[in-house]
Specification:
Layout: E1 3-6, E2 9-12, E3 17-23, E4 32-38, E5 45-51, E6 56-58, E7 66-71, E8 76-81, E9 90-98, E10 101-104, E11 108-113
């Protein structure tokens, strides 16, 4: 599977951004899709997950601020980020989980200035 993430950029603290991840196949063919992030000097960490059937999970650090959803028309998995904080600065990666394996996108940089 090929994944293409987009939507990153520079935003001031308190602002919003919407990330999108386009998949080469139908997003509904996957068991789950998720967003991860990696800040400079830190390990990649889980952000949010959309599981086939519609349930979602969020990291405690983003719960209430970020929303993961699907765009059926565009065949994307999106991450709406609000009330952004400088500590949200990271490269954001989308991932697709299938019984045959896991695919990763190339990442999109989000920078939140204070």
């Amino acid at each position: 599977v090929q994944l293409q993430a987009s939507g990153g950029g520079l935003v001031q603290a308190g602002g919003s951004l919407r990330l999108s991840c386009a998949a080469s196949g139908s997003i509904f063919s996957f068991n789950a899709m998720a967003w991860y992030r990696q800040a400079p000097g830190k390990q990649r960490e889980f952000v949010a997950q959309f599981i086939s059937g519609g349930s979602t999970n969020y990291a405690a650090s983003v719960k209430g601020r970020f929303t993961i959803s699907t765009d059926n028309r565009k065949n994307t998995i999106d991450l709406q980020m609000t009330s952004l904080k400088p500590e949200d600065t990271a490269v954001y990666y989308c991932a697709a989980f299938h019984t045959s394996g896991t695919g990763w996108g190339q990442g999109t940089l989000v920078t939140v200035s204070s």
